[in-house]
């Protein structure tokens, strides 16, 4: 049987519809509407007209108007951006050996810094629950990291010890013909594998005669020793294993589509019923009356209505509860969307809740964010360590430490007083109090404990103070700063 490089892993096909939904929902209304009936099915009446060849154009025009009036809510994009902003509000601390320092400012071939690459990883994992990092060495010998979205990682496998040893990456896209300056679509896949303890890769390109297979390029370190493992790193929402993880915001995307469908129906209702329509009655033969010009053709102060005996003129105007019911259903869907998405970002709670109660509540709400913060940082760290091994640097000197404290942005006056009181009563050290105040945004991020103590000595403890100033009962002990 012929080897088919384009074959998908079964798990890929199982998750692909979810990834497509999230990708479309993230990109927004234009992408959703381009998908047509995939997200907004035809109403029954239009479906029957669409089946009738003689009315197909009329039905299509009616559907296009129905779709154009609908509004798709931007919930997924807002939640993803808000979540990533929360995760990376404080950038991860990245430690590198000297050999890898150039990656800090240029980690990818398209010029992303390590911090920007971390943001891209977190965004993709938040969106689809999956991202791939493949280390490489450029022709000039400099290392880099190549990123692959979930849809590009089409196949993978593991050895007997459940270690990944095979992956196929979709690198298809448009390429420019330098001779003609025209762009053309190219179908291309990169196959990476470990065979006989040696890591190699080759590129498959679809040509007019079928697949064209490039030469296998084996990787070796700077001492010309073969690289004995697959350096590809799979970053998921839960772990770093090759199989896809759950899509974090799948429920929110489904609700967004539901709101879009409900909104289409509501706007259809309003379109046909909200505008008052004049109506006259009393004609024995309405068609003849229209033909003879007896029926009023306009409204307003310059138009005189002459009606037959016992005739009546009035406006037809919607007054039922149908539109209100549709609006209520949309609001309920929005409320559920808040539960699925915005709850992760919410910081408001009961005004009387204690600091510890708030911490427990927010810790629960932010569990998904913390998981993604940890896996995105761990994945970046593992990829950088693989680069270090490849170029002969010390992988143990690579560390990526994410910020996991998402709720201590602001401390209220009561909490600040409690921290200071605990320090003054010797319940906690000056260093502990300082760290807590710094985490809460009371102290600038770039200020050290020594600098803060020096400022306190000058500003509060009498070097230039007036003799009558009342000083705090307890000054910070310099020996406590490192405790």
Characterise this structure:
With 483 residues, the protein is α+β, with helices and mostly antiparallel strands. Among the domains are: 276-317; 413-480, no CATH class. Helix content is 40%, strand content 17%. The protein is built from 14 helices and 15 strands. The strands form five sheets. Strands 4, 5, 8, 9, 10 and 11 form a six-stranded antiparallel sheet that branches. Strands 3-2-12 form a three-stranded antiparallel sheet. A two-stranded antiparallel ribbon has the order 1-15. Helix 3 (44-51) packs antiparallel against helix 4 (56-69), helix 5 packs across helix 11 (367-391) and helix 6 (114-128) packs across helix 11 (367-391). The radius of gyration is 33 Å and the shape is flat. The model is unreliable at 345-354, 356-362 and 460-476 (pLDDT under 50).
Query: Radius of gyration, Cα only, in angstroms?
Result: 33 Å
Residue-averaged pLDDT, rounded?
A: 82
Number of helices: 14
Catalogue the unreliable spans. Answer: 345-354, 356-362, 460-476
Alpha-carbon distance between the two ends: 68 Å
Helical amount: 25-40%
Largest sheet: 6 strands, antiparallel
What's the SSE pattern?
Answer: HHHHHEHEEEEEEEEEEEHEHEHHHEHHH
Structural class: alpha+beta
Shape: flat
Strand percentage lies at 15-25%
Number of strands: 15
List the helices and strands and how they pair.
Layout: H1 10-27, H2 29-34, H3 44-51, H4 56-69, H5 75-87, E1 93-95, H6 114-128, E2 130-137, E3 143-149, E4 153-158, E5 164-170, E6 173-176, E7 183-186, E8 188-195, E9 198-207, E10 210-213, E11 217-218, E12 233-236, H7 250-273, E13 277-281, H8 286-291, E14 312-316, H9 322-340, H10 355-365, H11 367-391, E15 399-401, H12 413-424, H13 430-439, H14 449-460
Helix pairs in contact: 1-5, 1-7, 3-4, 5-6, 5-11, 6-11, 7-9, 12-13
């Amino acid at each position: 049987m012929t080897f088919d490089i384009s074959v998908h892993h079964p798990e890929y096909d199982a998750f692909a519809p979810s990834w497509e939904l999230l990708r479309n929902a993230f990109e927004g209304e234009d992408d959703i509407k381009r998908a047509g009936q995939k997200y907004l099915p035809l109403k029954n009446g239009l479906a029957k007209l669409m089946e009738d060849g003689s009315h197909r154009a009329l039905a299509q025009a009616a559907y296009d108007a129905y779709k154009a009036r609908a509004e798709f809510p931007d919930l997924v994009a807002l939640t993803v951006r808000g979540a990533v902003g929360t995760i990376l509000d404080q950038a991860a601390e990245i430690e590198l050996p000297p050999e890898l320092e150039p990656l800090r400012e240029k980690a990818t071939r398209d010029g992303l810094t390590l911090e920007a690459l971390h943001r891209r990883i977190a965004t993709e994992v938040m969106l689809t629950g999956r991202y791939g990092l493949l280390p490489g060495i450029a022709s000039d010998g400099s290392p880099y990291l190549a990123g692959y979205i979930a849809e590009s990682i089409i196949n993978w496998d593991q050895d007997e010890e459940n270690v990944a040893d095979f992956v196929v990456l979709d690198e298809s896209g448009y390429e420019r013909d330098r001779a003609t300056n025209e762009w053309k679509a190219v179908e291309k896949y990169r196959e990476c594998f470990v065979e006989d303890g040696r890591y190699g890769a080759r590129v498959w390109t679809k040509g007019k005669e079928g697949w064209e297979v490039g030469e296998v390029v084996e990787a070796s370190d700077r001492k010309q020793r073969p690289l004995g493992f697959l350096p590809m790193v799979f970053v998921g929402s839960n772990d770093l294993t090759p199989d896809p993880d759950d899509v974090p915001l799948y429920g929110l995307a489904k609700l967004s589509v539901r709101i879009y469908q409900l909104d289409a129906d509501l706007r259809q209702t309003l379109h046909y019923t909200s505008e008052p329509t004049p109506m006259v009655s009393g004609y024995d033969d309405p068609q003849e009356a229209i033909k003879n010009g007896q029926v009023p053709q306009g409204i307003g102060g310059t138009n005189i209505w002459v009606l037959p005996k016992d005739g009546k003129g009035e406006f037809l105007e919607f007054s039922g509860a149908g539109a209100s019911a549709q609006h209520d259903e949309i609001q309920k869907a929005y409320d559920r969307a808040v539960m699925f998405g915005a709850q992760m970002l919410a910081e408001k709670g009961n005004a009387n809740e204690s600091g510890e109660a708030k911490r427990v509540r927010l810790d629960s709400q932010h569990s998904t964010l913390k998981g993604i913060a940890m896996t995105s940082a761990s994945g970046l760290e593992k990829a950088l360590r693989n680069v270090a091994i490849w170029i002969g640097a010390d992988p143990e000197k690579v560390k990526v430490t994410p910020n996991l404290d998402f709720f201590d942005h602001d401390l209220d006056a009561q909490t600040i007083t409690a921290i200071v009181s605990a320090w003054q009563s010797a319940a906690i050290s000056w260093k502990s109090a300082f760290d807590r105040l710094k985490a809460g945004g009371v102290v600038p991020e770039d200020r050290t404990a020594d600098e803060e103590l020096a400022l306190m000595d000058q500003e509060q403890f009498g070097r230039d103070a007036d003799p009558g100033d009342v000083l705090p009962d307890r000054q910070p002990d310099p020996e406590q700063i490192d405790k």
